[in-house]
Amino acid sequence: MNTPYDTLYLFIDGKWIGTEGRATATVVNPATESLIGQVPLATSGDLDRALEVAGQSFELWRRTVPAERASILKRAADLILQRASHIAAQMTLEEGKPIAEAMDEVTRAAEYFEWFAESARRIDGRVVPANRPGVLQIVTRQAIGPVAAFTPWNFPAITPARKLSAALAAGCSVILKPGEESPATALALARALDDAGLPKGVLQVVFGVPDEVSSQLIASPIIRKVTFTGSVPIGRLLSKRAAEGVKPITLELGGHGPVLVFDDADVERAAVEGVANRFRGTGQVCISSTRFLIQRGVYPQFVDHFVSAARALRVGNGLHPHTQVGPLANLRQLAKMEELVADAVAKGAQVLAGGESLPGPGFFFAPTVLANVPMDARVMHEEPFGPIAILRPFDELEDALSEANRLPYGLSAYAFTRSARTAMEVGERLEAGMIGINQYRIVATELPFGGLKDSGHGSEGGTEGIEHYLTNKFISQA
Ligand code: NAD
Q: What class of enzyme is it (predicted)?
């Protein structure tokens, strides 16, 4: 495959704006370390313009009838699907994930636009019987207002898609700031929406110095809703900024997903599919399974299957069709993996597979399996967000649950058992917003996506996903 990397722009007031004297950030292909693009960084004046336009376009878009909003979103979904191979190649070039994973992500991003196109037509209200004669009480739901949306580099199609599709369906205008490290994919979604006939200015895309952009956008009285996907510390920071302006915020932050494998489970499946899940996206996946807690009776068997599947993974440039695990997305990520493994090993952990960076060029780290990791190792507390799996035995269900729920994270959790009683118990007691029983594939357009505890609040996707972009109003008429 030899797809060139797209030119990068800001998309403000319906115009595609190039560098034109602005500061830029470089985009690096993480598989080759070559510079592939320069992304223009918005100035404060650019952001002011985007805010003004977001306010004006909101007045137009909120009054556009739902059927029209829906048909634009559906056309955008069709265009994304028609352009899927091009968009997927952009993603692999800038983020590194294998091309098949990138194609899957683009397809699922298009599904969100289809799904929320339907939701646009189902934003209904209520007539509430009054306790006084001659009074009509109507409850309506209206678009909340212009949205500031911040998305990270790891899922450059699906994360913007979840936010844009629901917000636009609700009638909100949006200023999106995607990750500067993988900008072309989000711009390709914006291009599809533009080509589908989204009125100019309803969606704008900016890049910049993240802290400066979020400070300016969130502080503006024009913005009425904030949504962020990324790390817990930045989620906390943006939450405080949103609170200053009394603005609701949806947060999808990190995780450290436990997997409970019981003696009665299909152990081979739990292990082999666990490897696929853990190392998908080179482990840079917030809902990834990270801590594998295995009941002692099947621990040796699980370890054998898991380690041999991990060692068999083919690591390489994501553009090669046989690659199963690509590079880490950036040098920070590579340095972090080296630190986490060195720390765990120094404290007594055993490396059963991988454990080190692979020769470059490219930010490659071998799929790593750690056992006997002491509780004071950093990786037992910090989200690894990379290709490291932790295996630990447990004796009783209570031990497994207390380890699973020990951390402040609460995004995803998984369990494998043939017992309906155990499945019900862990489903009830695992502290996570998304739980997979006897499977790892937990994300679906139709289901709410979101976490508990420090992993954030608010659900994206499903019938719930549009709610945050709507606000209630009642009209009581005598
Ligand atoms: P980071 O915290 O610096 O950045 C995470 C994201 O937030 C990036 O997209 C970045 O552009 C954005 N960001 C950073 N500061 C911001 C600010 N002040 N205002 C607005 N946006 C801001 O972390 P990183 O080095 O990119 O990644 C490190 C960790 O973040 C990972 O190890 C992982 O724990 C977490 N993370 C989580 C997700 C997720 O899907 N939940 C995605 C990416 C990163």
A: oxidoreductase
